[in-house]
Amino acid sequence: MRRRRRHVHGSDFTPGAILAPSNAISIGLSVIRPLYSSAGPSATRGHRMQDQPRAHNGPSGLEQLRTLIADPNRMPTMGKTLNFELVSADLERVVFRGTPTDQFMNPLGTVHGGWASAILDSALGCATHVTLAPGELFTTLELKVNLTRAIRPDGRALTATGRMVTRGRRVAVTEATLADDDGKVYAHGTSTCMIMPPGSAL
């Protein structure tokens, strides 16, 4: 006796419900959003991936960051609040520089680990950002920070340098170090980022 095949009818299957990208949030989105105002329609439930625009003529991720460096007034306010800024960006590395003050001091008299984590997260995320093609977005999936030396609010400037470790079509892994001008490392970290195609929703 032959078994009857079950057929899936079009009314029972909604491709958009499976293929639509999920919403994601990242600390670095404040850098991306102002520069993606014309990135195309958002991907929402019910849109098929083939309906999304396939070509984008906007700036690449590297071009976006260089625009921010050229015009400091466009820098996200978070950097101003935490007293650090993006100073250089290319495909090999991204550099942030900042000076922690006593505003960021914890009860023990050292700089709170959140300050080091924030500047490292910025360098880690932007190491992915520089690799983005026009229209692509990214969000942080995982952030790991090791605090290796106490940071004191003594006016010493620190530099966070981020680099790409590996980059696939949808996932990137980056690393960054936080060091002073003498080369002493105060913290280092790694990050895993998800890369989203043009037309995705954040």
UniProtKB/TrEMBL annotation:
Residues 109-185 form the Thioesterase domain. Keywords: Hydrolase. Pfam families: 4HBT. The keyword Hydrolase applies. InterPro entries: HotDog_dom_sf, PAAI_dom, Thioestr_dom. CDD domains: PaaI_thioesterase. This is Thioesterase domain-containing protein.
